[in-house]
Amino acid sequence: MREYLVSKLAHTAIVVLCVLTLVFVVLHLTGDPVMMMLPSNASQEEIQALTVALGLDQPLPVQYARFLGRIARGDLGVSLQHQQSAMGLVLERLPASMLLALTALAISIVIAVPLGLVAAARRGTAIDHVAVGLAALGQSAPIFWTGLMLMLVFAVTLKLLPTTGYGTWRQLVMPALTLAAYPTAAIARLVRAGMLEVLEADYVRTARAKGLQERRVILKHALKNAALPVVTLIGLQFGLLLGGAIVCEMIFAWPGVGRLLIFAINNRDFPLVEAAVFVIAMVFVVANLLVDLCYGWLDPRINVRS
Amino acid sequence: MVPLAAAVVCAVFAPQLAPHDPLTGDLSARLRPPTWMDAGSRAHPLGTDQLGRDILSRVIYGARVSLLVGLVSSLIGGTVGVTLGVVSGYFRGRVDTVIAKLIDIQLAFPFILFAITVIAVLGPSLRNLLVILAVSGWVTYARVVRGQTLSLREHDFIQAARGLGSPAWRIVARHIVPNVLPYALVIMTTEIGRLIVLESTLSFLGLGVPPPTPSWGMALADGKDYLVSGWWLATFPGLAIMLLVLSMNIMGDGARDLLEPRLRGRRAGAGTQGAT
After folding, report:
1. Per the structure, how many domains does chain B have?
2. What is the pLDDT of residues B223-257, one digit of tens each?
3. Is B25 part of a structural domain of the chain?
4. CB-based contact B132:B203 (threshold 8 Å)
5. Which residue of B has its CA nearest to A268?
6. For testing the chain A interface, which of B66, B102, B103, B109 should be mutated: the one with the most A CBs within 10 Å?
7. How far is CA A154 from CA A143, A151, A162, B176, in A?
8. What residues in B contact A251, CB-CB < 8 Å?
9. In the CATH scheme, what architecture does the domain A89-298 have?
């Protein structure tokens, strides 16, 4: 187990390093932040002075080494636009993003697991067809269209919910439902597929032959064995939700890290872009790491030694 | 399959099918509702946008961008992915280690984050979009093809070819690739749908195909500011995306079912192509 943990931590560190390297390279390949910061009539001396002050006169490998050093110290610089610590700005917005992602994940689990169970238990019936159809639609609709349609129905037409804002549960409903659509569909399909396979197993046939109630057979015997891939998917979906949250936050003006990232990109605020990408990537890889570490705990048969 | 066929027809015959020029607007006819509503007009069946441009024409022309981007980037990503997957799975060793690590790394973080950053910095253009979408797709092909290749290389017919002195490139080209291509084609059917959604998302964020090229994502981005006065601006382009992706996914599911080993085993004459 220790070897597995060390291996996974090393892999995580490599992934984060690669993400940061890619962001650094891309941000420094194009554009000149000095020209973005200075007025158009800035003199050559002013341009040169700011270039030296920002360390942009150094060769790229030197800038990269300094960049890694700052990352190690937790210093991702100062936002060019806001003149505040870039990491501080991102960490301020992180709770909003996490709230949105976790709420969406909770909604998707609450809806998807029973839906998948019922669809599998009632295979071939109208319920099954409806569930499969809804799952297919959920996985096909772009997240931004889902959000706009929810806004059109619940905010514009029915006037039940506010279109934007942050702070009350009513403002959380539509963004969370929008973000939950795809994972709900994916989890429901996997629960259904897993249950269909497990319900054909010999031990389930034995349980039925012994006269157990169908509900007990499904919930006590079948579901546990179908759970491992589902739990894996749920864990992975949390990381993916962070990517989807970027679009969701733009639609609903949700004050999260994703929205901050888009504004930083549009304003070429490099330190803020680096900080936002770093934080999102870290949350994603930590979520994946926790899922990996849970494998052995969930199923004792799994040998975690490679 | 109907939405897919309709999208292909629209993409190919857009100039003949579209009732108006998608780029030209009539400000006196801006924000007209669809034809079945009051103040609607038969000249604009799905209404007009904020610049008086015909929505139906923009949806028809938008199919070109979506299908072109989805197909081309999927082909590029598929070619790269299959190549790397076969090389990785057949030759093993350091090559396999490096490629497998690259796959793991790319799958380990949300790609849209990377796509947004790269395109925003490099600038939105069709070329950048195709490249970034191709980069997003190769890992799926590579991972599946690598697994299939690892299995195939242990089959008797491959061992026999090796024993007969057949060079590695010949074994890969004549025996491995033909057997993994069906799997790649199955992946492609769902990948095209995924890439269409990704392209629409980037266009929605202003990072896709630059204007004035009509794009479904861009139409949705325009529509989000007019939900109250022009709900049709956002509804119909989004519906088009959803229906197209749905039909691609259904096609992919069907193709995957055909390739299921249990199903293949029950069909007479089924089996892998072997050495001759």
Report:
1. 1
2. 888 988 999 999 999 999 999 999 988 888 888 77
3. no
4. no
5. B121
6. B109
7. 16, 5, 8, 54
8. 224
9. Orthogonal Bundle (1.10)
